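Posting this for the archive.
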Amino acid sequence: MCENAKGKVFGHPLTRDHKPDIPEEKKRIESSGGQVVFDGFYNHRVFKKGATYPGLNMSRAMGDTIGHKEAGISCEPDVKSMELKKRSDGVEFKALVLCSDGVWEFISDDMAADMISKIKKPNGKIDPVKAAERICQESWDKWMEDTGNEISDDITCLIQVLGQS
């Protein structure tokens, strides 16, 4: 979550989603024995070539042993390093937000930043616990609306407020 010199908050993505249809991810998967198939609904999924498993709609995951060994799923992260200090254009990083794909499916970076900025403790400082709960609840509500109350994905949110004592 960032804030500019005029007090406007916005999201600033530091990573990208690991989707199997991204060309370099698809190439890595296919060179490791997997295949990427569109599921006919919303997602491209990773399968072992010629098999009907694991069927993940992401190209990287921790702990999926079969996906790692047989379908080209990787647990290797993308790594990006940057200083989170006030920039020369007045933009200041106010919080780091780490969410699972089930949150980002329906909540944009800017929506998350807006929610976080509005949830304050009595002393006026951001309340990261209540903000994370609000983001998760909003994501859950959107999943239920979209799927007729049948399906939700992993919904996890962690917030680290920066520069606030």
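Helices lie at 23-31, 65-70, 101-104, 109-118, 128-147. The chain is about 30% helix and 20% strand.
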